[in-house]
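Table S7 (text form). Paired inputs.
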Amino acid sequence: MAASAWRVYNEAKKYFLDDTIPLTTAAVRMKLVKGTDAATVSNYTRSSFASSTGTAITVSGNTTVRTPGSLAIISINASTYAFDSADVVFTLSAQKTSILYAVLGVSGGKAIAWCKLTSSGTITVNAGSTLTMTLHANGYFTLSGGTT
């Protein structure tokens, strides 16, 4: 029942380099998305955060459900850096079913990456319960190259 690695949208890579998405200062958002929207979420050509959400899970009337904040840069080794944030906790006031994806993006802006939350079935979260996104020790994704 492990989550997949975060997958960066093609356009996001360009936006990182031209600073359209300033990773260390942008207000990053995370959305939960139903499993019925696989084609919408996992299409690598997505560029808009709104267009990557499919049927986002609504929490208290807001589909932008959690803000990990700006991503921090952490050093993995001399030639590899990662983008990380605090773990993200969703508290749901009503039962939500068929959750399968999480999508990162900039509110009102660009899509960054997506993750499939489980390898088997979908996730149901009961009313009043929480879903905690515990990030890998190496963050969401890494940039590497050069020599160590």
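Next pair, protein 2 of 2.
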Amino acid sequence: MDYDLAFTIANASVLPAWLLLFIVPHHRVTHLVVHSVLMPGLLGVAYVAFIGVGMTTGGDGDFSSLGGVMAMFDSEPVVLGGWIHYLVFDLFVGAWVVRDGKRRGVHRGWVSVCLLGTFMFGPSGLLAYLAGRSLASGDRVALDEQPAAAVDG
């Protein structure tokens, strides 16, 4: 398999979804492509395939130490799977930011800045969005619209 070609295809596959989030975040097509299972599902299948190939043909890596994880990423299919992991989760977070911003009335300009941060730097964009949302509204709740009720136990 040509892993460089698969890498190029994976990268290119998310660009239309990101453009939809930036340009028409609430359009029907955006909902169909980005806010549904379509993109995460397709990329998820690719992730499982590449990680599966890498884990079954790879070396001595494991999750018990940094060295073990580094050894796992000595395999092209595992690195490609790891990259697809980033692509899926960054896109998922970007879609969530758009939906949450709309629900909470966050200015679209701020949402766009945070989308760019999420697209380029993943968690940094999410952190900026949560911090800006909290500062603008005084809301101390991190992710939920309302704090979860205390559970007696």
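Helices lie at 3-23, 28-33, 38-57, 66-72, 76-104, 108-121, 123-137.
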